[in-house]
Amino acid sequence: MDNRKIDQLVAEKVMGWEVIEYKNINTTVIDDGEFPVEIEEFKPSERIEHTWDVVEKLSEKCGVEVYQELGAPPYCKIISGAGKWIEYEAQNDSDTVPVVICKAALKTVGVEV
């Protein structure tokens, strides 16, 4: 799954925003309830400041733990209020900390990554 698709799914499934695709002009827009912006403006799989927005959203209902040790792959664990947890560890070199957090977040809402 490429980063653009991850970003789109996180916007829709995790953040709860409306995602609108305009195929005739090859543009995807997200509407967070304030004002619509192009999906390129929200890149949690690449921009850590956007990734932390995802962590803050998850923190409303879950505990979020992120581990990154020198030489070890990034790892994210999300713990729900019911004591259930979802874990995701980097699978390859392209799984950066933001990607790992996004993939763990998607798993919490039932999206397989």
Can you characterise this structure?
InterPro entries: Bacillus_phage_prot-like, Phage_ABA_S. This is Phage ABA sandwich domain-containing protein. Residues 8-106 form the Phage ABA sandwich domain. This protein starts with a helix and ends in a 5-residue tail after the last helix. It is an alpha+beta fold. The protein has helices spanning 3-14, 48-59, 97-108; strands at 18-22, 27-31, 36-38, 62-67, 75-80, 85-89. The chain has one domain (3-108). It has three helices and six strands, in the order H-E-E-E-H-E-E-E-H. Helix 1 (3-14) crosses helix 3 (97-108) and helix 2 (48-59) runs parallel beside helix 3 (97-108). Strands 1-2-3 form a three-stranded antiparallel sheet. Strands 4-5-6 form a three-stranded antiparallel sheet, with helices on one face.
Could you write a compact summary of the structure shown?
With 113 residues, the protein is of the alpha+beta class.
Order of helices and strands: HEEEHEEEH
Shape: globular
Number of self-contained structural domains: 1
CA radius of gyration: 14 Å
How far is the N terminus from the C terminus? 7 Å
List the quaternary state of the chains.
single chain
User: Could you list the spans in which at least 5 consecutive residues all have pLDDT below 50?
Assistant: none
> How much of the residues is beta strand, in percent?
25-35%
Could you give a short account of the major beta sheet? 3 strands, antiparallel
Strand order of the largest sheet: 1-2-3
Question: Averaged pLDDT, please?
Answer: 89
SS-based class: alpha+beta
Number of helices: 3
Number of extended strands: 6
Helix-residue proportion:
25-40%
